[in-house]
Specification:
four-stranded mixed β-sheet, two-stranded antiparallel ribbon, about 130 residues
Length: about 130
């Protein structure tokens, strides 16, 4: 017969032992994934990275970079700059590129940053991969 996690935690507490912290669930049910020593925010993003590696090996793309940063609002002595960090920038053999964000859902913060980004850089197009 076993005991539940909560019963085990209570038992440790009663014995005066250190109770390990409970792992917090992600707000959007995503979990961190590690591939090639890189931490990804979700399995979707990690899968997209693996797909890009295959495209690179096969010559479909010339390269890609992760976590490209765009300054949305400049900072000063009192405030920090606001940045939009995209998941991937993909470079093609014809010298074109795509900026891609892998999202399960569009959060309010994402929508605000995207709006500010479009105002500051109207020619930049960011594609969403779901």
């Amino acid at each position: 017969m076993g005991i539940s996690v909560s019963e085990y935690r209570q038992l440790l507490k009663n014995l005066g032992k250190d109770v390990p912290e409970e792992k917090k669930k992600s707000k959007y049910n995503s979990r961190k994934v590690w591939i090639d020593g890189i931490s990804f925010d979700s399995q979707k993003e990690a899968d997209y990275y693996c797909q890009l590696k295959l495209f690179l090996k096969s010559g479909i793309i010339d390269g890609f970079c992760r976590q490209a940063r765009f300054v949305v609002t400049a900072g000063n002595d009192d405030t920090k700059a606001t940045e939009y960090v995209t998941d991937f920038v993909i470079f093609y053999p014809d010298k074109t590129y795509r900026i891609v964000d892998v999202k399960g859902m569009k959060t309010e913060v994402f929508k605000l940053k995207m709006k500010s980004l479009k105002e500051k850089y109207p020619k930049i197009k960011i594609e969403m991969e779901k």
